[in-house]
Amino acid sequence: MNRHLILGILGLAVLLFAALLAPVVSPYPLDYQENIIILEQESGRQILYSPHPPSSRHPFGTDPYGYDLLTQILHGLKYTLAVSVIVSLLRILAGSFAGIPLGVFYGRKRESLLLKGLVGIPVFLFLYFLLFRVSFNSPISVSRLVILEISLLTLFGAPGVVESLRSKSAAVMEREFIEASQSCGAGKGHLIFRHVLPHLREDLFLRFITEILLVLSLLGQLAIFNIFVGPTVYTLDPPLFHSATHEIAGLVGQYRHYLTNSRWLIIFPLLTYLFILGSFSSLSRGLTNLLLKRMHAVKYI
């Protein structure tokens, strides 16, 4: 039994369910605020001020402004999942449309120095300095800023995928069945669609999952430096950074200072972020094991 694959699928099912049904399953509306809770007890009236610790009223507690933390996490999930999946898909498409033809037409004879140079670019630094000016209290709408961030994440991550697929497709072109097909008069287009793409199908899917993990890691790095998905709301008094979209990595970055007091503010977003990473990582490992099992099954045909 492929436990990693099952756990990965179950984890992703839970995440998709929570993200899609957030408005329904959230305990409170996103704009609901409860700064003060008044409890009537036998000993007298007790007044509690936010942030409120986890309780039956607020399972994950509230933030310093009285907003329910579980509600923020549920509503922020869709941004984390959507951005990571869309960016990874666009990177794979860019790699397929550029890398595979390069490998088919030129093989290993003409390796692109430009691609190798682009792969070595420190993506985090470039993204940080490019997004620094437009993220903080941005006049740009949330949707446009998210599209800009998706575009930049794709642009700086695509060269690595292009180079990887170029190398893989060049290796496929050296196989015997390619030579046999060429001897029968097959053109480059036929080779791409009938041989190379089917041969790389599993590699493309595994690379897609890997890219999702890389994007999630990059979002976490940016969040530590207060670059969140969507606008970063910055207040001067007190000096605080807030994620306008409540994206999970953004919540981790926003509440990372609450390690000594009100620990639930960092614990629950961090556990959610690790759960997302763990689900995709388990799915990747499960798929890898499945493909290896298939390869061994057909080894001696």
Q: Over all CA atoms, what is the radius of gyration?
A: 24 Å
Task: Kindly report the oligomeric state of this protein.
Answer: single chain
How would you classify the helix and strand content by structural class? mainly alpha
- The name of the CATH architecture is Orthogonal Bundle
**Widest sheet, order of strands:** 1-2
Number of strands: 4
- Most strands sheet: 2 strands, antiparallel
Measured between the Cα atoms of the first and last residue, the distance is 24 Å
Q: List the uncertain runs.
A: none
CATH-assigned fold name:
MetI-like fold
How many domains is the backbone divided into? 1
| The CATH homologous superfamily | MetI-like
Strand content: 5-15%
CATH top level is Mainly Alpha
Question: What's the average pLDDT?
Answer: 86
